[in-house]
Design a protein that fits this description.
This protein is an alpha/beta fold. It has twelve helices and 18 strands. Strand 17 and strand 18 (386-390) form a beta hairpin. The structure holds pyridoxal-5'-phosphate. Residues 48, 50-51, 69, 92, 149, 185, 188-189, 223-226, 265-269, 361 line the site of pyridoxal-5'-phosphate (PLP).
Amino acid sequence: MCLSIAEEQLIELAKRFGTPLYVYDEKRIRENFGEFRAAFPGAKICYAYKANTSLAICSILRQEGAAADVVSQGELRMALKVGVKPEDIIFTNNAKTKEELEFAIDSGVIIDVDSLDELNSISEIGKPAKISFRVNPAVDPKTHPKIATGMKDSKFGLHLENDIALEAYKKAKELGIEIAGVQMHIGSQITDMTAFEDATKKLMDFVLQLKESGITLKFIDIGGGLGISYEGEDTPKPKDLAAKVLPIIKEYYTKIGYESELWLEPGRYLVANAGVLLCQVQSVKKTPYKNFVNVDCGFNTLARPVLYDSFHRIKVLGKKGSEETYDIAGNICESGDILGKDRELPAVEKGDVLAVLDAGAYGFSMASQYNCRPRPAEILVRENSVEVIRERETWDDLWRGETVPDDLNK
Ligand SMILES: Cc1ncc(COP(=O)(O)O)c(C=O)c1O
């Protein structure tokens, strides 16, 4: 098992708390953060909240010293709620509303500006704001197209070419807005380090250009995106990323003539392999063409396989071997709801508990109530205890906040 939680304990948790169930390993989260801290000494590691916004998880990372990368007012409020200091929060998004901008300014966080219109909105609010700009380095991170975010045709950031980003910085200076840094984020689940190297060079070239225009920065944020091993293959670790990008940054510091703080925004790497989704087999159906294992969760619970064709290893807890080939079918009424295709597993039977591995990132945070299925509970396995960190939703949660006009009740 690649979790430090034993299979027997997972089976016991499924019995005790029911399925579907997200289970997280606190120790693994702390270890993952420790890898980043060790690889990037002195850097500010902003946990990307979108990966998993459960308050207990965010609190563990805050305790470890994580700052926060947030993408909505909701995530910003979560970061403040768990006690992250405003100056340790960077708010990135391509379409912030005026209300979000005002809240961010009033909270004193860094606003990572994505467009000139956004810069003007900040100026119109007329209160002192601290900003960085998100720049688009136009690199191909060789990941799934839906999670590549710094390609030349991506919706995010200001392009470096044609001095677009440079002009934005000059404009901010003219407007008297406090410029704190520069940010990029080129994508997610990146395992080829070349794109990080290329993008970092482009970013540092830009920092040099800014210096030549009289603009210096407090921080340089190279974003998140380091991938994890979903199939058990060898993938680069934070130290491998550091070995590629730190020498580039260092070399540029000499040319630039000053050193900025380095910020990073890992999400997936910190929490993905610390989480597992447990589900129970409701039936095994053998058709003339395929064998289906029908489970009690679906893409409402874990969207990644359907959204990004992502691969998650799936284990039959308490059983070994690979005797038959199955598709693991979710319970959502759509044919596309398959959690795993053509998996060789031990003979699966009704009642077996399956563990979908590496489900700690972009799992619960993307879960919905589609098909009117309450969202699952979340459990944290600690050194000496097991805690329910989120209760399973109830039927009432399905219609909370809804109103049926009186005449429709007749
Ligand atoms: C702006 C930003 N920063 C950081 C991240 C975290 O990426 P990852 O979870 O791949 O580390 C994301 C997610 O795509 C993001 O959009």
